[in-house]
Design goal:
Layout: H1 5-13, E1 31-37, H2 41-52, E2 59-62, E3 78-79, H3 89-106, E4 117-121, H4 124-139, E5 145-148, H5 149-155, E6 170-174, E7 178-179, H6 182-195, E8 199-201, E9 206-212, E10 215-221, E11 224-233, H7 239-244, E12 252-264, E13 272-274, E14 281-284, E15 289-300, H8 308-321, E16 330-341, E17 347-350, E18 356-360, H9 370-383, H10 397-400
Parallel strand pairs: 1-2, 1-11, 2-8, 4-13, 11-18
Antiparallel strand pairs: 3-7, 4-6, 5-6, 9-10, 10-11, 12-15, 12-16, 13-14, 14-15, 17-18
The structure holds flavin-adenine dinucleotide.
The site of flavin-adenine dinucleotide has 39 residues, from helix 2 and strand 12.
């Protein structure tokens, strides 16, 4: 079934009886060409591109819970490509280009909204760093614009300019950045993959990897053994657990990150805003809620909920940046488990086990990467070689010292 305006009108006039389930609920087959562990954004995007672009149809996605129950349905929905380093910027710009055509590609409304992002700066040194980053973005074909304090005030008059502890001196803007409806992204990819023949198997937890003579033969699951020629792991915050089943210890720690949504307000924020003197970022959803977040909680955990000190820290950041946020009531908050790598950048690579591939280390920036991550992981699984924009995301870079430390924070996963 293809979705269109015509279809909506037809269904409205005929009692909405023609809509079909968005994906099937198949029983697992004994063997697949490729099994992807994890039905989050990255796993589903991988299945979509594997089947649609690379023509592999005998593919399954196995998900321990339900589609969209992980970080893909828990994030603050920001998409952007404002990176500095060579290993990152071409990848994230490729991703943003895929975002721009995503809804047509999967024929699903993901509410992609290019409302822009502004990274505020508060010191001269920070301005110089942002100029450098903006230039790197432009050199890689992305868009970037530097605003001074007056220009920021004209676009965002509600920010605290006059009695701020950290006066706003300007901002780096990417107009093509924005937000997308996170769970619709998962549903859109799932639907498209299903249409191209992929089996999406929910409530099927991978409990072991069957490895013989250094080769992965398939996955042990809560619904029995499923054989596969290739197995791709895309389980985000559970990366350490699943790859531990292959005896691998990853350069990744799991941490919790929280998100917050206020009650619905009239339109006030035209774009995504990030505070440069503390960790706080905010946008406004189409329903009117202010969607915001800040730092990870800073301790290792697999819990999908956080603690109060970070709530206080995030609220302090919000109050410093835009005191009017103190008038809004907090409606809900939740947490997701982040796969924090040692240099803050991801991994898309083969592993020492034949037939076993790994995708992870997305930290708290993996939503924006969803399309490119899926595309590049599909490329690797189909062709056994890295996609040109993902060649830097090697697993052995931590051993060889080729770190992609975007923030310059060193090997401190809780600081990236
Ligand atoms: C609060 C919060 C805010 C964020 N904000 C942003 C943002 O604004 N912008 C941005 O770019 N990124 C953001 N992120 C990060 C982003 O959400 C993640 O990096 C990204 O979603 C991770 O990839 P995924 O979608 O595949 O993960 P997930 O959706 O977590 O998918 C992994 C899946 O694997 C499944 N799984 C785990 N173990 C097993 C097993 N043994 N067997 C089978 N299945 C298994 C899980 O159930 C899960 O569904 C945020 C994250 C959080 C939590």
């Amino acid at each position: 079934m293809r979705y269109s305006g015509f279809r909506v009108i037809k269904e409205a006039l005929t009692g909405h009886k023609g809509w079909k389930p968005v994906w099937r609920e198949p029983e697992p087959k004994p063997h697949y060409d490729v099994i992807i562990i994890g039905g989050g954004g990255h796993g589903l995007a991988t299945a979509h591109y594997l089947s649609k672009v690379y023509g592999l149809r005998n593919v399954a996605v196995v998900e321990k819970g339900w589609i969209g129950g992980g970080n893909v349905g828990r994030n603050t929905t920001i998409v952007r490509s404002n990176y500095l380093l060579d290993g990152n910027e071409p990848f994230y710009e490729f991703s943003l280009k895929l975002w721009e055509g995503l809804e047509q590609d999967v024929n699903y409304n993901a509410m992609m909204s290019q409302r822009g992002i502004i990274n505020l700066f508060h010191t001269d040194g920070q301005r110089d760093a942002y100029i450098r980053r903006g230039n790197a973005m432009i050199l890689n074909g992305a868009d970037a614009e530097l605003l001074d304090a007056d220009q920021v005030r004209a676009e965002h008059p509600y920010l605290n300019f006059d009695d701020a502890r950290f006066p706003i001196k300007g901002g780096l803007v990417q107009r093509r950045a924005g937000t997308a409806r996170h769970d619709a992204v998962a549903w859109g990819y799932a639907r498209s993959a299903d249409l191209h023949g992929v089996d999406i198997i929910q409530n099927c937890e991978v409990t072991g990897l069957r490895i013989e003579n250094g080769t992965c033969l398939g996955v042990e699951t809560s619904r029995g053994f499923i054989g596969a020629s290739k197995v791709g792991c895309a389980v985000a915050g559970n990366s350490g657990r699943v790859m531990g089943m292959a005896g691998m210890r990853l350069p990744i720690e799991s941490h919790v990150l929280q998100a917050f949504v206020s009650e619905g307000l009239k339109p006030v924020l035209p774009s995504v805003i990030t505070f440069g003197a503390g960790h706080f970022y905010v946008s406004q959803s189409d329903k009117g809620g202010l969607v915001f977040g800040g730092d990870i909680d800073g301790y290792n955990t697999y819990a999908q909920r956080g603690n109060l000190p970070v709530v206080e820290d995030v609220c302090e950041g919000g109050m410093a940046l835009m005191p009017m946020i103190g008038r809004a009531r907090l409606l809900r908050m939740w947490g997701g488990v982040m796969d924090m790598s040692m240099d803050g950048s991801p991994i898309i690579d083969r592993t020492p086990v034949q037939g076993l591939y790994f995708n992870g280390g997305w930290c708290y920036g993996g939503f924006k990467a969803t399309p490119a991550s899926g595309y590049c992981f599909a490329h690797l699984l189909a062709k056994d070689e890295p996609h040109p924009v993902a060649t830097a995301y090697r697993l052995d870079r931590f051993r060889t010292g080729r770190m992609i430390d975007e923030k310059g924070a060193g090997n401190q996963p809780n600081l990236h």
